[in-house]
Amino acid sequence: MTDAMLAIGTRKGLFLARSTGAGAFSVEPIMFSTVGVHAVAIDTRGPVPRLLAGIEYGHFGPSVMYSDDLGETWQEADRPPIAFPDACGTTLTRVWQLLPSPSEEGVVWAGAEPGALFRSEDGGVTYRLVEGLWNHPHRPRWEPGGGGLCLHTIVAHPGDPRVMGVAISTGGFYRTTDGGLSWEAANQGIRAPFLPEGQQYPEFGQCVHKVAMDPGDPDRLFLQHHFGVYRSDDFGGSWHDVGSALPSDFGFPVVTHPSRPGTLYVLPLNADMDRTPVGHRYRIHRSTDAGESWKPLERGLPEGPVYASVLRDAMTATEAGLFFGTRDGSVYWSADDGESWSQVVSHLPDVLTVRAAVL
């Protein structure tokens, strides 16, 4: 591994950590102290990496900051970077997701609360509402999950900018094939057991926690649901359960290996309301056959008991390694595909999001 950067968004601030060569990560002083950082991105597409941070200003509301000098200084657009048009009759609550497009230069996508998608064409400085999704007839019937009515996942096809999908809690998974002009619910096969018998496979309304794309096959998606782990081989056209062999199919994050097709990771949590790690141990479960079988990975992780959960965006897999952060402020790193782990940092505020990139 060459030089790498790790960005850790927490309930009270942003922390950047850097590694040179194969060395350990060194954590830098806090940025945006006392400010919640719910979304981060490291955009390495241009000649200079750009960092993006979706922050909450408290009384001043949410915003997106950007840095072109690896966090030394930060800037904000002259006008609110993300804002709903007046005709929408609502205001921005939070930025949940920032994703540089894999196929369009300068384009950055933002997922927001309440249940909206925004598009930037200037590298993430300013954004406009994707009205095709906002005007979908299902939207008025979407219900907020425990974290709010959040658009928390964006998956963009690397070879076709017209194809992408989003997940809304608790609207379900939606996809577009025309660049966002029109959208369709894509939840066939995802069971909602809280509904009455005979109505447990609705068109929309599933409590999707996270979705990840297989880099070896962009049509293959993996989905962590409130009630299962699912796979789709046709970009959400249909789904089938691949979580029955896990100790619990409840959890929040799901991530895929950046270069190994069919390899994905989840972190099972107790499905009851305490939402602690199963057995009160952090055990990342890895599948190398697209969810057909699973292997628990824990060497180097705390022997327990541990009680802090891992949120939907607090795990990432990149060429820099596999990382996850916990709600008690620890971040763990594996440089060998999860076989062994080391602690990057502890005693941070509640970790909300983790992103990493080779620079």
TrEMBL record:
This is Exo-alpha-sialidase. Gene3D superfamilies: YVTN repeat-like/Quinoprotein amine dehydrogenase. It comes from the Bacteria. InterPro entries: WD40/YVTN_repeat-like_dom_sf, Xyloglucanase_GH74. Coiled coil: none annotated. It comes from Nonomuraea corallina.
